[in-house]
Amino acid sequence: MAISAVCLLAPVDGPIIRRYAPVGDYGGHWGVDFQAEVGEPVRAPASGLVTFAGTVAGMRTVTIEPLPDFKVSLSYLAHLEVASGQQVSRGEVIARAGSPHGHPGVHLSTRFGGTYADPYTRFGCVETDITRALRLVTPPRPYPRSRAHRHTRGNLRPHTYRPSP
Fold first, then answer.
1. Which residues contact 104 (CB under 8 A, 6 or more apart)?
2. pTM
């Protein structure tokens, strides 16, 4: 599964102020929120194609598709610096942070085939070790071990100890 090898870069330098919580008030929180000052540059978390750059529910949003069926969306943006159909590189400035609900910040969510997943599990795999990126990969199955048919007594040697004549 190639999706599990995608490592995300934090879009801003601020800490996470609200974690992924799919169950809760108003149907849950389907991503993570980062603290950011209004106007702070927002970086692309992954390289890929910008599939959406516009407004959703009154908030500016950018969606990047690093791989087919894997989408990374950023919202609570004050200004967009990319357009739909544009290729972006990981770390490239794509927008400016905004102030949703009266608190400055940036919201990041990930979707695999349309299903939301915790983006926090995708961070840091470059800074630590590659096993964090591989946690969703199904372990390989061992090769089948079969042996050629052999006669059970065909290769037996005579008794190893023989008295001298």
1. 35, 36, 37, 38, 40, 97, 98
2. 0.70
